[in-house]
Amino acid sequence: MADLMVEAEGLMKRFGSTQALAGVDVTAHAGSILGVLGPNGAGKTTMLRILTTLTHPDAGHARVAGHDVVREPAAVRRNIGVAAQDATLDENLTGRQNLVMVGELSRMERKQARARADELLRTLELTDAADRILKGYSGGMRRRLDVAASMMTRPPVLFLDEPTTGLDPTSRQRVWTAVRALVADGVTVLLTTQYLDEADRLADRIVVIDHGRVVAEGTPAELKRVTDGARLDVTLASPHPRAADALREIADGPLRCGDDGRHISAPVRIVPGLVTRAVRALDDAGIELEDVALHQPSLDDVFMRLTGGVRDMTPAVTR
Amino acid sequence: MIGAGVRIRGDGSTARHVISALHDVYVVTRRNLVHIAREPMQLSDVTIQPVLFTLLFVYVFGSGIPVPGGSYASFAIAGLLLFNLTTSSMGTAVGLTVDLRTGIIDRFRTLPMWPPAVLVGRSLTDALTAMLCTLIVALSGLVVGWRPETGPAAVLAGFGIALLFAYALSWLAACVGLWAKGVETAQSFGFLVLFPISFISNALVPTRNMPDWLRTIADWNPLSAVTAACRTLWGNPNPSALDAAWPMQHPVWAAAAWSAVLLIVCLPIATMLFRRRTTT
Question: For residue B254, which of A65, A262, B93, B225 is within the disulfide window of CB 3.0 to 4.6 Å?
């Protein structure tokens, strides 16, 4: 079990009448990325605050890098780097001064802290802004500086709370690259995100949280298998009585037809030549096609299914 | 493997822990000083205000307040020093409240630093600004005619006891800042509590003509004791010496005692409040 860098069992936390966490179990293996996915208000941040010693759980326990987060907070803090959601840096210091301060308070030598700060400022493309006060930083620059601060000591375990929220695609790539580089060195990363593609591309394992509970867990591939699977959507030039029969041969379940008779959706199992066969079958029957599209299941589908689908990811409505 | 090439200070012995803690205090203090350098107007209460009050009191009040045994200027500088140090001590409260309200405190709490360094660093910063305040009061005093009449050792002891009291007071301010919900509460405590306390004392006027009950309060006001101690040590006029109250008869001891009491009471309370505010 020495391999587990994050292990939490039965975490519960209540704020007033809100049950933020209702018994959460998570584990992350050394050198892996665990993606924690969930809508706003699902309990992601609360879980992160417990794992980073900022909040005590009402029940349950957690160990990070082998140390209990409640009983040995100091030992945990020596092993973690944290990029929290609200900017947790000093508004009146420059980007560089912030990083050096974080390094020095993490027991790094000043010289080493400076060198590491330079390196991270370069990696996250903040060199030009390095000597400006944070007050003049954009939201995206702050996020990146927060991420840089979390990486100062190359901690064995890194916690990133929505590290790329509000970042443009280029900045997001930079953060991903920096995270991957650390993981290649053996660092364990736990990152929360609302972006399914981020979890899909970055995480080795994903935990989906909703209403303070884990509603699904697995590799991205495993989670995708939870949903219906692939779908072939066919649009006909005009409704045709034999179209459904032609598609039934390749379908892997009941077809769904649109009201206008032109849209047919067939659940399929993806095999080589699938689309060709479908087109040929329809063509043989003399049916004219307007469009054919094969939909692979995405984590979006998984997410919508698991979290009830209706709730979108606009700012929290949960209380 | 992990952290290769990064030398990490301080694990193991108690001595190492103490050195690490002091280093953290140093880093936090330096950060606070950078803040001040960025916005020097933060210092107006220990730079401009002392000059302004010295001029106002010496020239406006001084002309109408007779002081037995000397000029108003030679009487008032000790009082003005304590008055300025007291009102500016609220800076500690405001600074702490601001730190606790922003996300920076969460950042500190996830670092392997000595958590109270935030608190100690703040009080050290204020000790440094108090020294600046003392220097400014002394210089403006010299300009308006104040002169210490004793030797260098006694003069320095006077400044020392004033600064000790200011330092103790900053821990009281820390308690207020940690207890207060917002910056405004901390500020209004300064104005509604410390301001009147500063006036009901021997700092700015001789207490001789006050009604008995008011003079009793003034005699036992810690501020009066420290002011009287400075006057005694500097050889300046000290009319309070005629009052029978114990602190006025033994001002140096009383000043030291008040400072010690404040520190002994407020230091643990501030530490406790700080821990409570930073635990959820």
Answer: B225
Contact B104 A155 (CB under 8 A): no
Read off the DSSP letter of residue A167: -
What are the Cα distances from residue B123, in Å, to A42, A73, B23, B160?
40, 25, 15, 16
- Answer yes or no: are the C-beta atoms of A25 and A9 closer than 8 Å: yes
Provide the shortest C-alpha distance from residue B42 to chain A (in Å). Answer: 13
Model pTM? 0.81
**The CATH classification of domain A4-225, taken from the options 3.40.605.10, 3.30.1490.20, 3.40.50.2300, 3.40.50.300:** 3.40.50.300
The yes-or-no verdict on residue A314 having pLDDT over 50 is no
Domain ranges of chain A: 4-225, 228-296
CATH code that applies to domain A228-296: 3.30.70.260
What does each C-alpha distance from A218 to A61, A143, A204, B276 come to in angstroms?
22, 28, 9, 38
Quick one: average pLDDT of B132-146?
A: 95
A107 and B10 within 8 Å at the Cβ level: the answer is yes
For A:181-200, CB contacts with B below 8 A are: 185-187
For residue B58, what is the DSSP state? I
Quick one: average pLDDT of B106-118? 91
Identify which of B23, B28, B103 has the shortest CB distance to residue A88: B103
Question: The complex's ipTM?
Answer: 0.84
Interchain CB distance below 8 Å, B280 and A54: yes
**Inter-residue contact A270 to A296 (CB < 8 Å):** yes
Percent of chain A with pLDDT over 90: 49
- Residue-wise pLDDT tens digits, A150-205: 999 999 999 999 998 888 888 888 889 989 999 998 999 999 988 888 888 899 99
Q: Find the residue in A nearest to B110 (Cα).
A: A77
